[in-house]
Design goal:
There is one protein chain. The chain has helices at residues 14-49, 56-70, 74-90, 92-99, 105-116, 120-136, 139-154, 158-166, 189-207, 216-230, 253-257, 261-266, 282-289, 319-329, 368-376; strands at 170-175, 181-186, 247-251, 272-274, 278-280, 295-299, 345-348, 363-366, 380-383, 391-394, 400-403. By secondary structure, it is of the alpha+beta class. It contains 15 helices and eleven strands. It has four domains: 17-136, no CATH class; 187-240; 247-299, no CATH class; 319-419, no CATH class. It has a four-stranded mixed β-sheet with strand order 5-4-3-6, with helices on both faces. It is globular, with a radius of gyration of 26 Å. Residues 332, 334, 337, 339, 366-367, 369-370 line the site of zinc ion (ZN).
């Protein structure tokens, strides 16, 4: 609100005009969906009045009419009818939010399709928090948070569902064109990730050879063939042999300490999860953490003794700190970016040449594109003190965007006085 004498009336800039139209689009989208559902109900009522049974044929006719009228495919029309029915009949609070331009149509679509896929008794429980996230977060972040929320709610039954799914493990071959074929393996996600990580690490070692001309994808495929057909890597360069993958398994410390399922339920049940995959049954996680090689154990409450800072002694963060920085963020720490942290570069938030220390409180993963934008795009980026890893981005136009890490770390007081500003 403008207060006389306080500051000059802000002049709307070009981005304000874009935002205004985007808001109108959300408002109009809500009205369109309301009318689509009204049209569906009217057509059903008419069919009933003529004594026709409400069969799939009637539904099909409604879909055809909407598709023809809007000049879209029947597939799109069906999607619109479903979304309209869901918002008007079952998720009125979400429709209200769209009509008030607090979420976009894409947020609403993600919310409906995700909640419709979970057990009906969980929907009402999840809805208020899911809508609050939709109203606060960009689409990519919202989708991930909603996924995590649903995973946590469903983790109670995860062990049983995993047990049943495990019975269906198999390897299958699917013919493709031009003398090619797909080889599929339905296996536990943890093993799948370990296989992919190892094959990628070996392919990268091979690709670093000066005579190598194959792409990473091609090399990965060749490594899979070598390992599965001959079972040996004698033909690979020495540095690619004997590579074992490391996969991060995140386990909530409290769940590990819980004596049994009942106690675990009482303590709350954030699920154990594997980096890049999602939740796994807790017993599986316990087995992996029991000392098997190749698994990096990360407790969601960090163990004391974690390396928090090496100050100005070393530009490159030590491996433990790099893992912690990536694990904390989960993703590139630019607003709304979804690139996994494992594929990001670690950026000194305050640049090394400007005196920035190599510290957990001055580092965040950024994908190559956003790393370039940060350094050359006129944006300023700061770590929010005491936030456990949040970044505040300020655009050249002066707008501010807060990016929270996927897993905020408890804030420790670094013992070294040199780190006091952080
Ligand atoms: Zn990015």
């Amino acid at each position: 609100m403008f207060i006389a004498g306080d500051s000059p009336v802000p002049v709307p800039d070009a981005l304000d005009r874009v935002i205004e139209i985007a808001d109108y689009m959300s408002i109009i989208a809500a009205q369109r969906l309301e009318r689509i559902d009204a049209m569906r109900r009217e057509a059903l009522a008419e069919a009933a009045a003529f004594g026709r049974e409400l069969t799939p044929v009637v539904e099909r006719g409604i879909r055809l009419e909407l598709a023809a009228a809007l000049r879209v495919t029947e597939y799109v029309a069906d999607d619109l009818l479903h979304l309209a029915e869901a918002l008007v009949q079952r998720y009125p609070a979400v429709l209200d939010s769209l009509a008030g331009a607090r979420v976009t149509e894409q947020h609403a679509r993600i919310l409906v399709s995700s909640l419709d896929a979970v057990e009906s008794e969980l929907r009402g429980i999840l809805l208020p928090d899911a809508l609050a996230e939709a109203e606060a977060q960009p689409v990519g972040t919202f989708r991930r948070r909603l996924r995590a929320m649903i995973d946590a709610a469903r983790s109670v039954t995860l062990a049983r569902r995993h047990e049943e799914a495990l019975a269906h493990r198999r390897v299958a071959i699917e013919p493709a064109e031009d003398g090619m074929a797909w080889l599929h393996a339905l296996i536990p996600a943890v093993e799948a990730r370990a296989i992919h990580s190892r094959v990628t690490a070996m392919a990268k070692a091979i690709a670093s050879h000066p005579d190598e001309s194959r792409s990473l994808d091609q090399t990965r495929a060749d490594v899979v063939c070598d390992l599965l057909i001959e079972g040996d890597t004698a033909g690979h360069p020495a540095e690619a042999r004997g590579i074992r993958a490391t996969v991060a398994v995140t386990v909530p410390a409290l769940a590990l300490l819980a004596a049994d399922d009942d106690e675990r339920d009482r303590r709350g049940h954030a699920p154990a999860s594997v980096e890049g995959i999602g939740p796994i049954p807790l017993d599986e996680a316990k087995r992996l953490c029991a000392g098997a090689e190749g698994w990096m154990r990360v407790l969601t409450h960090p163990e004391t003794g974690a390396v928090l800072s090496v100050g100005r002694d070393q530009y490159r963060p030590p491996p433990g700190m790099r893992r912690l920085i990536r694990w904390r963020a989960g993703r590139c720490m630019a607003p709304g970016c979804g690139v996994p942290a494992s594929r990001c570069e670690i950026d000194h938030t305050v640049a090394w040449q400007d005196g920035g220390p190599t510290s957990l409180f001055n580092a965040a993963p950024l994908c190559t594109g956003h790393h370039t934008v940060k350094h050359h795009g006129g944006w300023t980026v700061e770590q929010v003190p005491g936030s456990g890893g949040a970044l505040l981005w300020t655009s050249p136009a002066g707008r501010r965007y807060l990016v929270q890490p996927e897993r905020p770390l408890p804030v420790f007081r670094p013992s070294s006085a040199a780190d006091a500003p952080f």
